[in-house]
């Protein structure tokens, strides 16, 4: 990292960490945002917290107080996946306090409107860029960008301990961790670190109550082997092809070395290659020429642009060359953020325009654009999964009494709900709320099943991988009910 970056970061940290021990640091207060014209419905804060003094490893956060009752409402940490995915994805496109829309002219600053379905309606939200090298989080030692599951969890735990030192007025609030996709690894490993800290008496003591995960990467056997049956069940491949693949692969679709199995997976890949992997109901445009029909896109859909394409370099690792749709790496396999693969059917143009504008960086107390280029998916980190399956983490946490909500958009081809339903069922917990529909305004919004040890599995009808993006109203509703301890 250059000397100018170091000095800029030092200046920001020297200001943002002034709290006097009495409450939220006033220097971190965000009073206005470019593109928004109005009054914030609650207080916003942002800045860096140092998790390693020697290396200068600093994680960026954006904090939104609850719009309802911040002194009592839960505080919820949000983590996007990746690995290396900025949590501004959740802030900009999913459940943040604003809806972002394109400016009046091409490449002009996006305009922000209040989001009626923001999760800050019922909770305070911390959006954290983790690990260092992700989003706006940086280190003065680039070796820190070589990381993995366990180091990421440890750093995020240190972040939380220091964050609560800076915001001690929230220590008594119920605290939850949430996330989606590869955060299916981030969240349980971080939760485990928090619980270990509580058990040995680390201060400040975090009032941790549980966690919730959307379409989470959990276990390669369950997640990987769910994709082919899901494609068949959704009518994307024929009975014949499914039966042939099942016969050749013997039900093992994600790591088979059988050439005949691989041939059948190639055929399946060819059959579904043009689908929107994140939501099979949504259109998929592969280039700008596809816009010629002037088809009106759903509000949740982000078209693939010609610049700043969202990187997702790990997608074709689980199934080898024949399958592009995994969401996490094999244990011990390194992911380099400089990969060339892209996420189909979507882009991050609005977020890129906004977050790479100098006035925005100044408003949110982040490093200048010249010092750190914001990308939705990091091109800086080298990441090695080293935590293994998350199933044992879930068992350990739920049996200690921590609440868990596992929810799935039921039209996600990236991490299908069928695999998630299967691993939650595999825990062997007693069913205390039999499979049934859940409702919003007398309409079926999905299905749910409740288990002992405060574990709930939930589907959202018609939703894709990023549930609050595709179904914002339904997402806020089940989120609110679950946080309040009500039946969904």
From TrEMBL:
Tell me the GO molecular function terms: acyltransferase activity, transferring groups other than amino-acyl groups; serine-type carboxypeptidase activity
Q: Which residues form a coiled coil?
A: none
Keywords assigned:
Carboxypeptidase, Disulfide bond, Glycoprotein, Hydrolase, Protease, Signal, Zymogen
Q: Which domain of life is it from?
A: Eukaryota
Annotated signal sequence is: 1-23
Asked if Disulfide bond is a keyword of the record, the answer is yes
Q: Does the keyword Ribosomal protein apply?
A: no
Q: What is its EC number?
A: 3.4.16.-
- Record Pfam families: Peptidase_S10
One GO biological-process annotation of the entry reads:
proteolysis
PANTHER family in alphabetical order: SERINE CARBOXYPEPTIDASE-LIKE 20, SERINE PROTEASE FAMILY S10 SERINE CARBOXYPEPTIDASE
Task: Report the family membership.
Answer: Belongs to the peptidase S10 family.
This chain's protein is named Carboxypeptidase
Q: Which organism is it from?
A: Zostera marina (Eelgrass)
